[in-house]
């Protein structure tokens, strides 16, 4: 019998493939039953290639083309329900849910916080870069990070604007010139790198003055590869990581001497230091673990830099096309601060138009436009399932949920009907905030 099979490799392969298909079929029947026991399915995206390769290809194409937002619109277009933007698809045998429904996002981030997290895979994928920091951990580890960082980011530590002023002044010297064209976004990214390194470590990388700093290029390269790793899921092993690890070496070699220097000081000396950096403040809590400190510093560097540079860039992009907004903003600045004095924290708090401008930027260009969480237990999402897309969705442990704040915040159907006071949601209009505040979650 065995001899017969070995003489016919074709039959053997056929048998193996057959058993594999049977195995997958049984597994998916069991999974479908388990999902149905918890809740419903959402509208399913059709894939025409095995493992959803066509969808992965489409996602990569849009990522390369800087048109992620169109990819997500394409995903949500699979929902036949007018007021539901929650869909699902199997990618490499894993079930993915994509959502831009406020009820579901609220559940993931707030009301069902315990059910969703980053998960072990994310922690592993990001470990070389962000270690065990606040961005890569769940549960107790996340909680510990939060306890450590939080006191360093409270008001009395961010209200000191001297450090902002120093780098803002340097930024201005790079803009100058009549009719000269500058890439303001590139300058903002250098500005916020200088600002955050100064704030965190007590020393700036000064990339505004030296655009080609090794640190800036290393940080950019590591972020680029890290994003590829995250998008590639199970296939991330195939991504070349040479530049990634070289970049990490540069980042660590820059940061570690500062940490070692701070750890040589006594807690009492650190507490008395007149101008404490974030790093000084962390070390003053008594933490002596160099790696733990490194992870938190890098995490806050990542968290604070791109968000701020992006928000500034999008604000200037909008202002450059709308001189009326510039005039109003300028008038408020001149009234509250004048043309020579430096603004104080209190000044900034008492400038409603400025706040409306920033709110309007974050509405159309949220700094974290897309994000992902993994189900940590079997659970449900409140809406998007069943025949009319309003039933709870069954979610098995390990299911990935991609959510798109940017798509949600651009949904016309979630806003008041357009009127004289309230332009269509797609329009950039700080004035809409005069008489409107979105309903908070809590
Ligand atoms: C325009 C400015 C900013 C926006 C819109 C923004 C937005 C966000 C969002 C949406 C998250 C949640 C991410 C997630 O759930 O995965 C987050 C987390 C975080 N951000 Fe920001 N951020 C900004 C600036 C900053 C700055 C300047 C810092 C610090 C200097 C910072 C520190 C953090 C930290 C530490 C977390 C993790 C919080 C946690 O997990 O408990 N962010 N931010
Ligand atoms: C890629 O980008 C170009 C220009 O930015 C745009 O015209 C084109 O439609 C995009 N293609 C896709 C598939 O999004
Ligand atoms: C800015 O947006 C937040 C979130 O929607 C809101 O709570 C706040 O009141 C807004 N600020 C102003 C000045 O309208």
TrEMBL record:
<dbReference type="InterPro" id="IPR036396">
    <property type="entry name" value="Cyt_P450_sf"/>
</dbReference>
<keyword id="KW-0479">Metal-binding</keyword>
<dbReference type="InterPro" id="IPR001128">
    <property type="entry name" value="Cyt_P450"/>
</dbReference>
<dbReference type="Pfam" id="PF00067">
    <property type="entry name" value="p450"/>
</dbReference>
<keyword id="KW-0408">Iron</keyword>
<feature type="compositionally biased region" description="Basic and acidic residues">
    <location>
        <begin position="431"/>
        <end position="442"/>
    </location>
</feature>
<keyword id="KW-0503">Monooxygenase</keyword>
<feature type="region of interest" description="Disordered">
    <location>
        <begin position="414"/>
        <end position="442"/>
    </location>
</feature>
<keyword id="KW-0812">Transmembrane</keyword>
<dbReference type="GO" id="GO:0005506">
    <property type="term" value="F:iron ion binding"/>
</dbReference>
<feature type="transmembrane region" description="Helical">
    <location>
        <begin position="6"/>
        <end position="30"/>
    </location>
</feature>
<protein>
    <recommendedName>
        <fullName>Cytochrome P450 alkane hydroxylase</fullName>
    </recommendedName>
</protein>
<dbReference type="InterPro" id="IPR002974">
    <property type="entry name" value="Cyt_P450_E_CYP52_ascomycetes"/>
</dbReference>
<keyword id="KW-0560">Oxidoreductase</keyword>
<dbReference type="InterPro" id="IPR047146">
    <property type="entry name" value="Cyt_P450_E_CYP52_fungi"/>
</dbReference>
<keyword id="KW-1133">Transmembrane helix</keyword>
<keyword id="KW-0472">Membrane</keyword>
<dbReference type="GO" id="GO:0020037">
    <property type="term" value="F:heme binding"/>
</dbReference>
<dbReference type="GO" id="GO:0016712">
    <property type="term" value="F:oxidoreductase activity, acting on paired donors, with incorporation or reduction of molecular oxygen, reduced flavin or flavoprotein as one donor, and incorporation of one atom of oxygen"/>
</dbReference>
<comment type="similarity">
    <text>Belongs to the cytochrome P450 family.</text>
</comment>
């Amino acid at each position: 019998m065995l001899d017969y099979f070995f003489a016919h490799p074709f039959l053997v392969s056929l048998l193996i493939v057959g058993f594999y298909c049977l195995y997958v079929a049984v597994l998916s029947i069991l999974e479908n039953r388990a999902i149905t026991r918890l809740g419903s399915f959402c509208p399913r995206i059709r894939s025409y290639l095995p493992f959803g390769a066509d969808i992965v290809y489409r996602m990569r194409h849009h990522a390369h083309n800087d048109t992620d937002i169109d990819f997500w619109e394409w995903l949500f277009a699979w929902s036949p329900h007018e007021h539901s933007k929650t869909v699902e698809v199997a990618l490499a045998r894993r079930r993915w849910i994509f959502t831009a429904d406020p009820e579901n996002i609220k559940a993931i981030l707030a009301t069902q916080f315990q059910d969703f997290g980053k998960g072990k895979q994310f922690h592993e994928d990001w470990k070389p870069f962000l270690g065990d920091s606040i961005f890569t951990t769940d549960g107790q580890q996340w909680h510990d990070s939060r306890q450590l960082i939080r006191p360093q980011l409270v008001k009395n530590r961010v209200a000191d604007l001297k450090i902002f002023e120093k780098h803002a002044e340097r930024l201005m010297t790079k803009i100058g010139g009549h009719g000269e064209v500058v890439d303001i976004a590139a300058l903002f990214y250098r500005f916020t790198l200088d600002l955050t390194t100064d704030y965190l470590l007590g020393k700036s990388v000064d990339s505004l003055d030296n655009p080609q700093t090794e640190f800036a290029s290393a940080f950019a390269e590591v972020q680029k590869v890290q994003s590829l790793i995250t998008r590639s899921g199970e296939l991330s092993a195939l991504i070349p990581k040479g530049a990634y690890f070289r970049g990490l070496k540069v980042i660590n070699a820059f940061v570690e001497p500062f940490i070692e220097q701070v750890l040589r000081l006594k807690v009492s000396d650190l507490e008395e230091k007149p101008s404490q950096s974030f790093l000084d403040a962390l070390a003053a809590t008594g933490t002596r673990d160099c790696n733990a400190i490194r992870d938190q510093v890098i995490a806050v560097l990542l968290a604070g830099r791109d968000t701020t540079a992006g928000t500034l860039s999008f604000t200037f992009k909008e202002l450059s096309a709308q001189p009326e907004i510039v005039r109003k903003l300028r008038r408020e600045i001149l009234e509250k601060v004048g043309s020579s004095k430096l603004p104080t924290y209190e000044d900034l708090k008492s400038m409603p138009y400025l706040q409306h401008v920033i709110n309007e930027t974050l509405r159309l260009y949220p700094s974290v436009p897309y994000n992902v969480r993994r189900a940590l237990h079997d659970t449900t999402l409140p809406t998007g399932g069943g025949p009319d897309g309003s039933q709870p969705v069954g979610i098995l442990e390990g299911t990935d949920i991609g959510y798109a704040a940017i798509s949600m915040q651009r949904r016309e159907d979630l806003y008041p009907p357009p009127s004289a006071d309230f332009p269509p949601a797609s329009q950039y209009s700080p004035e809409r905030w005069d008489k409107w505040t979105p309903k908070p979650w809590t």
